[in-house]
Amino acid sequence: MKLLVHICCGPCAIYPLKKILDGKIEVWGFFFNPNIHPYTEYQKRLEAVKILAEKMDVKMIYRDEYNLEEFLKNTISNIDARCGYCYSSRLEATAIAARENSFDYFSSSLLYSKYQDHELIRGIGKGIGERFGISFYYDDFRIGWKEGIQNSKDMGLYRQQYCGCIFSEKERYLRNQIVKR
User: Fold this and answer.
1) Is the preceding omega at residue 38 within 30 degrees of 0, hence cis?
2) 2-180 architecture in CATH?
3) What does pTM read for this prediction?
4) Boundaries of every domain in the chain
C-alpha cells in the first residue's frame, strides 16, 4: 500500500509520519502550499520540509509553486470561507499527484493541527477522493500534538507562528496587539 501525505510544514508532519512509517505502508510526502505568505515564509517552510525529509528518510514530491495571486483571487470575495478553499486546493493537488504516481491513498499533515477544522478537511478529502478515484486516509493525529512540538524542537526545525496565509498572518499580529493593550 502506498500513501502520499500532503505536508503543510515540517513541524506538523513529524507526528503523522512517525505514526504511519511503521513499515507496513510506503509513505511519501508532497509539498504544495501556494497559500503561504510572504514568500520568505514560504521559503522557510519549504526548507524545513527538506530538512525533515532528510532526517526522517521520507521520499518527497515537491510542487514548488508560489501562487499568491490565485489564492487571493479565490478567497478575497469570501474571506470567512478561505480555509475551505485552501484545504480543497492542496488536497486536490495531492490527490492528482497520488493518482498520477500510482498511490493507493492520500492524506495531509493538516490533520495534526489542533487549529484546523478536521471535519471540513475530512469531508473535502473524502469528496476529492471520490472525484479522483483515490481513497482519502483520515486519522486524527492531534493526539501527538505535544510530541510533535518537542520533536520539531529537537530536530531544530523552523517553527512558524501562524497557519500560513496572509489573513492568518494578520490575525496573528492583531491578536498580539489586542493582548498588549
Assistant:
1) yes
2) 3-Layer(aba) Sandwich (3.40)
3) 0.90
4) 2-180
By residue count, the chain amounts to: 181
Question: How much helix, strand and coil, in percent to the nearest 5, is found in the chain?
Answer: 60, 10, 25
List Cβ neighbours of 120 (8 Å cut-off, separation of 6 or more).
83, 84, 87
CB 41 within 8 A of CB 165: no
What letter represents residue 91's amino acid? Answer: L
Q: What is the CA angle 27-30-35, rounded to 5? A: 150
Q: What is the tens place of the pLDDT at every residue in 14-43?
A: 999 999 987 688 999 999 999 888 999 999
C-alpha cell at 67: 501562487
Residue that is written with C-alpha cell 508560489 in the block = 66
